[in-house]
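Q: Hi! First time doing this. I have a protein sequence and I read that you can turn it into a structure. Is that right? Here it is:
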Amino acid sequence: MGRTFPPSHFAADIRTFATARSGLEQQERLDADLTPDTAPLLMAWQAPRALIVGRSDARLPGFARAEEKLAAEGWPVLVRRSGGSACPVSPGTFQIALVRASAGKGDIEAGYRTLASLIDRLLSSVGVQCEVGERTGAFCPGRYDLGVGPRKFAGLSQHWRSRGLVTIVTTAASIIVEDNIEEFCRIVNLFYEKAGKERQCSSAFVTDVKKALSTGITPDVDLIVALQTRLAQEVDSWSHKPFDSVPLSGLPRHWV
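A: Yes, that's right. Below is the predicted 3D structure, encoded as structure tokens:
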């Protein structure tokens, strides 16, 4: 039987940082004292604009040139531990990270399924139904893209790190709640143009949660507040049950 875990292991609010670098660094320090005998950790956060890229992007021949150009455009470039390609963050997006420790090899799908299901329930609460599957025309495409039809509004990445006999698994998501999709795609394409890689994305394959709304919520409602409230409810329900019994919803996989 799995362990129940106290609410203090979870941040039920969405933390706001002065810079995206501060948020990312805090997220990547979550595992400092984590062991297989402690509960998983969850963190949700927001920050000003930045472009977060994978480690392979940092090795592109024109990375320094791209970094300088984007900084001049008001988009600092940050390198994350996990894989994947460039992903914009802004006050109109929020990030969620779930960190757990395992004494064994672990299941690569478990973190993805758990976090994708959490996001599915958050968005269902505001009248948005998710479909999971890669949108190849979007930025940072991956198997666990979440969206409606061909358009993506959230994506997941994962990082595994060995610490002695313990494996630390961080599963992270970025959700576009409401922002300028054309600007997001422009800045991603500009980064790759300057960095020297042929990778283009199109706003035809990206949307935000607000544009995906159905009749579940009126457009003048603060979606960040609505999702924060729902996140707090979900986290509270997790605190009363084992991690291995956290509900996993059946997401439609129309775009796999």
